[in-house]
Amino acid sequence: MLAAPTASFSIRRSLRQLPGVRSLVDYALRNKPVLTELEFAQFHAHGYLVIDPELPEEALDEAVRYVLARPEAKVSHHGTRVFNAWKECRPIRQIALTARVLRILRQLYGREPLPFQTINFPIGTEQRVHSDVIHFNCDPPTYMCGVWVALEDIDLDNGALVYYPGSHKLPVVTMEDFAPGPGTKYYEQYEDHIEGVARASGIPPAQAVLRKGQALIWAANLLHGGGTHHDKSRTRHSQVTHYYFEGCQYYMPLESYGGYRHLRFEEWIR
Ligand SMILES: O=C(O)CCC(=O)C(=O)O
After folding, report:
1. pLDDT of 2 over the 70 cut
2. In the record, what terms sit under GO molecular function (predicted)?
């Protein structure tokens, strides 16, 4: 038999129904810290953090099934990406909006996270090293991050991410540093330039070996890329969601030059 609620329990419950109190409780829950002080400090010192978003396994598996059914998902081609599937696939949207990740990002950045893009990868990208800031910067700068979720176990044989711990503190590279003007036609020059930056930094690269369901958060300017996918018989299902943070002006440095800013107007994932 259930015990009758005590008087203090009933008073607390009634208080929580009051509109002002309810929004305060909601606010406190949304902003309740998830990370320890050490994890918080690690992220800001090294520019990345491995977390457990506590996503249901079914959501991970459904995201994979959705991607495999897409015509562009060729698991033999390292360029394969499925962009913005959150618009059609509920589990992919759920991964982007999972409350625990949003709370972690609020804690790390002190602002409301705004997810704006999902990319699903059925296979390792082997993408060259880069910083997301060349695509997505903002004012104030670097209020942006990527959350990369392993949808299956990922190790050194199936294209684990490569990243350079602490490289988020290197100066932000802009088009003026290496190109005669703005534009995607200079992207290969960007890759050559940033590879030189990574080499000159002397930072040894690391690789993200992750269990299914784990995620790596990278700070906007962290240098990273796709590791070699050695075992061609395996897939490397993963999803990255890119997040901006509230209250900034958002722009694309790759298309900006000499004081001109190519603004970005994103569709926030909701
Ligand atoms: O998943 C990968 O291999 C690389 C992804 C990446 O570099 C990115 O999304 O910016």
Report:
1. no
2. 2-oxoglutarate-dependent dioxygenase activity; iron ion binding
